[in-house]
## 1
Amino acid sequence: MTETEPETIRYTADVVALTPGGNVLLIERGWEPHKGSWALPGGHVDALESSRDAAVRELAEETGVHVAADDLRQIGVWDQPSRDPRGRYVTVAYVAVVPDDTPITAGDDAHDARWWPLDGLPARLAFDHADILNAARTA
C-alpha cells in the first residue's frame, strides 16, 4: 500500500467504567492480539450503530454491566496507525461511572473481568489502553 491508497480502517468503541471508590473495570483478553493481557471493555461498531451504542453493547456483552447510552461521556478518539497489530483501528473512548457494588460477569470475548484499583493496575495493559485510562483520569 502507498500513502495515496485508501486503507481499511476498523471502527471501535471502548469504555472506561469507573466506580466512585476509585476502581476501573478491565477484561482479560481471551484471544490474540494481547491474549492474556488486561484491556478496557470494547469492540467493533456494527453497521447502522453509533460508537456510543456499540460501547453500551460491548460493555454489557463482555462484563454484564448495563448502562444507558446517556450515561456515557466521550473522552476522546485514538487513531494512531500503530495502535493495533492487526491493522488500522480507530476507537472512540467513553467513561461511565457505576456504583461501587456493581456485579460483573466475564462474557463474550473476555476470559475474565475484574475491578482494579486505579492506583494498582496490572503492569501491562493491551493496546494503548493505558493512554485512554490516563485521559479518563484527567477528564
Note: Residues 51-63 form the longest helix (13 residues).
## 2
Amino acid sequence: MAERSWSFSNVFRNVFGGGEPISDETWDDLETALLSADFGPDITDSILDQLRADVERHRVTEVKELRRMLRELIEERLAAFDPTLKLSDRPAVILVVGVNGVGKTTTIGKFSNYLRSFDKRVLVGAADTFRAAAVEQLATWAERSGADIVRPQQQGQDPASVAFQAVERAKNENYDVAIIDTAGRLQTKGGLMDELTKVRRVIEKQSPIAEVLLVLDATTGQNGLAQAEAFIEHAGVTGLVLTKLDGSAKGGFVLAVQQKTGLPIKLVGQGEGIGDLTGFTPHVFAQQLVG
C-alpha cells in the first residue's frame, strides 16, 4: 500500500527556510517550532539538548544539516516502539477503546477497510450498546468497508454478550479479524472500566485478545491524552490509533504520546475518507513532519 503524503502545516519553515549558518536565533526558532508542534516542553528540551551536543561534537555549522539531524533524531525516537499489529491469531480479536467523540466508531470502519485491502475477512462487533446511534453508524461503516457485523439483539443488550457472540461467530465462520467496538462512557451507575474488564473476561474464555487499541484525537493533543489515562491504566491497552492528523501542525504529539505512555502508535488517520487510515511508519512520518 502506498504511503500517505502528510499535509502538516510546516512549522519548521522559519527554522530551515534558507542556507544560513546555525545561530542563536536558529535555536530559538527551533524551540518555538517544537513547542508549537505539540512536542511538549520536556521532549522539546530533550531534543534540543541532544541536537546541541551532536552539533558541537560533529562541528556542524549549516542549518540544512541541523534539519537532517532533527529528522533522524525524531525517526530514531519514534522507531523505539514497534508499530506492528499482532494479527497472527485466527481470528485476531481486537478491542477498540476510547472516550466518545474521538472518532472511535468511524476508525473501526476505516480499520476494517484497511484490513480488507490485505484480503482479510473482517467481522465487527457492535458492543457499544449504550448508544443506538453508534450501532447504526458502525453498521454503515461496516457495509462500506465490506466487513460483516454482529449487532445487539435488543437495545441495551449487555455489551459483553454482544462481544461474546461476535467472537463466537468469528471463530465458527473462520474470519481473520474480529474488531469489537466498546463504550466510551456509560449511561448507568456501573463503572466503565468494570464494563471493559467484563468484556475482556468474556472474550478471553473463547479466544486470546490480540490487541487493545486506544483511539486518540490528535487535535486535542495533551488534553486528549489526559482524558484517556484511565483506559491506559485499566484497559490493558497495547497500542494507539491517532485520528484527525490532517492539516494539523501538532505532529509532535505523535512522539510525545508514545514517550509519555510507553505505547506504540499502530495506526494513523488523516482525512474523512474510508481509505484515510494507514499503518504507522516512523521514517515516512519524520520525513513529512520535518521535511
Note: The two ends are 22 Å apart (CA to CA).
## 3
Amino acid sequence: MNILELLKKDQDQQMPEEYKQLSVEEMENRVKEIKERMGTSLFIPGHHYQKDEVVQFSDSTGDSLQLAQVSAQNKDAKYIVFCGVHFMAETADILTSDEQVVILPDMRAGCSMADMANMDQTEQCWEVLMETFGDTILPLTYVNSTAAIKAFVGKNGGATVTSSNAQEMVKWAFTQKERILFLPDQHLGRNTAYDIGIPLDQMAVWNPISNKFEYEGDLNDVKVILWKGHCSVHENFTVANIKEVRETKPDMKIIVHPECSREVVALSDDNGSTKYIIDTINNAPAGSKWAIGTEMNLVKRIIDQHPDKEIISLNQNMCPCLTMNRIDLPHLLWTLESLEQGKVVNQISVEEEIARDAVLALERMLQR
C-alpha cells in the first residue's frame, strides 16, 4: 500500500466534521432508530467509565473482560461496537467468533497504562530476568494490557488477572514458580502481593525506560518484579486527598480502586475492583457517607443513582479518563450509520498467532 492509499484509508477511518454539528436530540434519535433496525445483529457493550451519553445506548455495561465475555456469548450479534478503549476491543475480538466484527468507534481511545508496556521493552526485560533469576519467574499481566503482551504472557506459561481475581491469580502463580513478573500496573501488583503477605522489601520495580531494576536490596531476595506502569487516573488520588476527607468529613468512609498507590490504599477504609466498589455502595445503608477513589464518570453515575447517600469523589478536581472519553455520541452515531451503509470503520482485528497465545493467558485465568 503506497502513501496515498494509507492517507486515504486514514481519512476514511475518521469521523466527518458534520457529525459534530448535530444536536444531541437528533443524534440520540438516529442511534435509537438504527438500533431498532439492526436488532440482534448489533451489540453495544459499554464500559463503566464511559460517558452517560454513550452508556444510555449500551446493551450491557461492565468491566473490560466481563464485556468481552458477554460479547462472545452473544452469538446473534454480527457487529460488536465496543464502547471502551483499544485493549478492551482487542480482548473482545480474541474471544468472539471469526464471523463477528469488533469495532471501536474512535481509534484514538487508547489506554496510557496499556501503552506503558510494549513488546520490545517486555522482551528486553525478560532477557535480563532470565539472566538474573534463571527459570524461576512466571509472568502475569493485568487484562488492561495489549493483545501482544497477553500473548507474550501466554506463551511463557503465565496468565492474565483482573482487579477482582488478582489475589487468587498471584497465589496460583507462586505455586508454579518462585517469582512473578507483574505488568503493566505496578500499583495493582504491589497492593495484591502485599495483601497476600509478600513484604514490600521483596518487591523490585523494573523500569522499562532505563531497562534497569529500581531496588536497593539483594535481588536474590526479590519475589515480585513490578513493571513501572500505572493508571493515569488512579495515580492522581493522593494521601493529601485522604487527609482532607479525614479532616473535613471524619465520619465518611473512603473506598478506592487497587490501581491507586500503596500509600493511598493503606490509608483507605476499603479497596476493590470497579464491580466491588459498585456493589459496596449498592449494599450500603441509606444515610451512609462515601468518598470514592475511581474514575469520575463512574463516580458521578453512582452519585446520581444513590440520592439517599452522601457520596463524593476522593479527589474533587479529578477529570474523567480522557482516552475513554474519546468515545462519544457523534462517534457512536457515525459508526452505526457507516454500518447501515455497508461500511465497517475502525475494525479491531488481532493477528491469529497473537490471539492464539493471548487465549492461553486468558484461559489459564478463567480455569482457576
Note: Residues 1-9 have pLDDT under 50 and may be disordered.
## 4
Amino acid sequence: MNEPQLQSTLTCPECGHAQVGQMPTDACQWFYECSACRTLLKPKPGDCCVYCSYGTVPCLPVQAGNSCCE
C-alpha cells in the first residue's frame, strides 16, 4: 500500500487560483475559502470534501479505498 499523500493543490473554479493545502487527518474538509477571490468552496454533488472536488489528490479515506469520509 502506498503512503497517503497529505498535501493537495486546490484550484478555485471561480478565479483559477491554485494553492497547496494540508489535508486534515482526522476529518473531511467541507469548506475552503480561496485566498485570492474569497469564494467559499463546497464539495461538488457526490463528493465528500473539497479535496475530492477541487484537489489534485483526494482525501485520505478515498486514498485508502473507502467511498467517502466516515
Note: Residues 7-63 form one domain.
